[in-house]
Amino acid sequence: MARTRLYRDGSLVRENFPVHEISEHLADPAALVWLDLFRPTPQKLARVGQEFGLHELALEDAATAGQRPKIDRYRSHEFFSGYAVRIDPHGGRLTTTEIAAFLTRRALITVRQDDGFDIDDVVTRWDDSPDLAGQGVGFLLHGLLDHLVDGHFQAVQQLDDAIEELEELLFAEDPGEIRQVQRDAYELRKSLVGLRRVVLPMREVINTLMRPGTGVVTDRLMPYYQDIYDHVLRAAEWTESLRDMVASVMETNLSIQSNRMNLIMKKVTSWAAIIAVPTAITGYYGQNLPYPGFSDQAGLISSSVLIVGITLLLYVLFRRNDWL
C-alpha cells in the first residue's frame, strides 16, 4: 500500500497516482513529491532506494525497528527516524509507533511499519497550510514533525493529569486503593522512561535541521521550526519534572506505608502489654504457695481489682500517648 501526492509550484495537483510515475514528475524542477510506504517489503524498499538514490544504511535503518530518534545526513538526502506516542487513558501505558522518512531535494518518502501512526492528520496539516507548500520538502517535513511533537506534548499532559489523580489517592485508607496507587505509580514511571527516550533526542533532531546549510528549512519556514523546537523543549523539561514527581509519589507512598506499619506495631504492642497484666496476675495467684488471700474470697477480689485497675490505667496511658 502506498500513497502519493504531487505539488507543482506550491500547489497540490495530484493525489494517489501510481508510484511508477514518480520519476516522470521528478523530472520537472517545479515538482514536489510525497510517497508514503506502509509495511513495504524489502524488495519494494530496495527499488525505492534505487529510484531515489538512497543510501543502503538508511534503507537498513528504515527496515529495522527500534531506531533512536535521529537525523542522519548523506550526500544526496537526509534520513529521519521518530516516534508517535499514545497514552492509555485508563492505565497510563505508553504505546509508541515508529516512522522513518527520507528527505531528498524534491521528495519526502515516509515509511510506516504499522497503522498506529495517524498519517491522515499529517495530510490535514499540509492542507491547512497551502501558502507554505512552495517552500519545498521542508514544508512536508514540518507537517510531519508538528504532528509528532504535538503528540509528545499531549502525552506529557495526560501523564501529568494521571499523576495528579494518583496524588489524591496517596492518603486513601482502602487497601484496594493503596494497591492501585502502587501499580499505577510503577506503570507511570515506566511510561515516563519510555517517553523520555522519545522526546529528548528530538531536541537535537530539530536543532540539526535548523542549522544553516542543511537546505531543508528555508527562511520563511524558520519561525515554524522554531515553534516546534520550543514545544520540544517544553515537552522535554516537563517530562523531566514528571519523573521527579513520580519518584516523589513513590517515596511518599513508601513513607505512608511505613508510618501505617509503625502505628499498627504500636497498637499491637500496647494490646500485648494490656493482655500481659491479667496473665501475670492470674499466673502469680495460681502458684501453689500461700499468699495474702490464699483460699479466701478476699484473694479473688484483690486479684480482680488489680487486673481491672492496672488494665484501665494502661489503656488510658496508651490512648493519651496515641498508641491506641
TrEMBL record:
GO MF annotation terms: cobalt ion binding; cobalt ion transmembrane transporter activity; magnesium ion binding; magnesium ion transmembrane transporter activity
Top-level lineage group: Bacteria
Principal location: membrane
Keyword field contains Transport: yes
GO cellular component: plasma membrane
Cross-referenced CDD domains: TmCorA-like
Family of this protein: Belongs to the CorA metal ion transporter (MIT) (TC 1.A.35) family.
Name by which UniProt lists this protein: Magnesium transporter
UniProt source species: Streptomyces harbinensis
